[in-house]
Request: fold
Amino acid sequence: WLYETSSTALFWNPDGLLFPDLGRLLHFHQQAVDSGHLATINLLRHPEVGKRYHPVFFQDGKVTGFGRSSSTKMGEALHFAGAYLLEKKAADMLPLPARECDIAKEVWFPLVAQGKFAAFLYDGPYQDLGTPEDIAEAERRISRGDFLEWLHPGQ
Reply:
């Protein structure tokens, strides 16, 4: 049912507050698919990559690895910002019959090994919601009324 009307599906993790231009993200993904990629991940530069967050390595428009490596040969270390696009061909890599699985191990790692995982650089507002402290910070921003300023500086 997920791929009934399109070969592309958008997945959005609920533990991050972000506002990517979905049209721009989809356009980037379609260009990546045209050059052989089967997925696109939304990444951003974040000061806590490698400390709080496991890095996703990026180079030349694609994901080159995951994890704690400090090797600059793998590319720039970025943060996964919670959204990705997946082609049906990539989803077909998931085990059948359907069971609980790890998307990274079943799909992402193999796509990286094949050079078929594109990376979109997101440069907009972002707030992690993965801990009670993160949620409290988002609530403070909203209650102070500076949340919209944070989303749209200078407006």
User: Anything to note?
Assistant: The mean pLDDT is 87. Helices lie at 22-34, 88-91, 103-114, 132-144, 147-151. The longest strand covers residues 76-87.
